[in-house]
Design goal:
Shape: rod-shaped
Helix content: 55-70%
Number of strands: 6
Strand content: 5-15%
Order of helices and strands: HHHHEEHHHEEHHHEEH
Number of domains: 2
Strand order of the largest sheet: 1-2
Structural class: mainly alpha
Distance between the termini: 35 Å
Number of helices: 11
Radius of gyration: 32 Å
Largest sheet: 2 strands, antiparallel
């Protein structure tokens, strides 16, 4: 069909008559679409609009902030896995008896076997510190899935309260873990191993939950997306910011 702006095409949009028909579409509208001014007006309008009362720059900064937050939680979860490796690994020598040589009053050497309590204490302290670092961020996460996993782990930890206290791990009012050094040093080795060593230990269950938190946070960071004008996804915060600022 060959259309010329010199002719009346109102029949295309309804019955012939005034441009104030119920269709709300006039030849002036058609002309503005044809010459591109309507499209320019729409682009200008949406560019100036705010999202939930926020400017494009606000949205960009918020998205970048979330990316940093989720990546940090994922990183802390990874560090937790590393920090508890020696405690958790059943093939670790952490809970093995070590030969210790001592001298008596007469400078006679005496060899005996005992556990390296200082090394065990250090590993337990690393566990508590890493746990607190992950959970302090995850429980306050802006991502509901991350926060929910953290809340579930907090609930699970309450069921471990008695056994953890037996080996020197106590709970603060905010849910953080605190280490009673004297209790750790004097705890039964069997109880310590049941709490921290091997796949059947409490620590194994805790580590699994921390891993899930890290994976969820990493996924949330990866999936921060916004729509481009061609209905494709922008893959990161910078792309979203460019899109909202009219640069995409």
């Amino acid at each position: 069909m060959n259309l010329s702006t010199g002719n009346d095409y109102s029949f295309l949009f309804g019955s012939s008559g005034s441009s104030t028909e119920s269709t709300g579409f006039s030849l002036n509208d058609y002309a503005s679409i044809k010459n591109g001014s309507y499209g320019k007006l729409l682009k200008s309008y949406y560019k100036q609009q705010k999202s939930d009362g926020k400017t494009a720059e606000d949205v960009k900064k918020e998205t970048q902030s979330k990316g940093v937050e989720y990546s940090e939680i994922s990183s802390l979860a990874g560090k937790f896995e590393q920090s508890v490796g020696k405690l958790l690994n059943s093939s670790s020598d952490l809970f093995d008896l070590k030969e210790v040589t001592e001298k008596n009053e007469d400078s006679v050497e005496n060899v005996k076997k005992e556990y390296d309590r200082e090394a065990i204490l250090s590993a337990v302290k690393d566990f508590a510190k890493s746990y607190n670092e992950v959970m302090s961020k995850a429980t306050k996460s802006s991502n509901k899935n991350v926060a929910r996993r953290a809340e579930n782990l907090t609930g699970q930890m309450t069921s471990y309260f008695g056994k953890l206290k037996e080996v020197g791990i106590e709970f603060g009012d905010d849910g953080s873990l605190k280490v009673n050094e004297d209790t750790v040093k004097n705890a039964d080795i069997g109880a310590l191993k049941r709490a921290f060593n091997g796949k059947d230990s409490m620590l194994s269950q805790i580590s699994s939950k921390i891993g899930q938190i890290g994976t969820t946070a990493a996924s949330a960071a990866k999936n921060l997306k916004g729509y481009t004008s061609s209905a494709k996804y922008a893959s990161n915060a910078d792309a979203i910011g460019n899109l909202l600022n009219g640069q995409a």
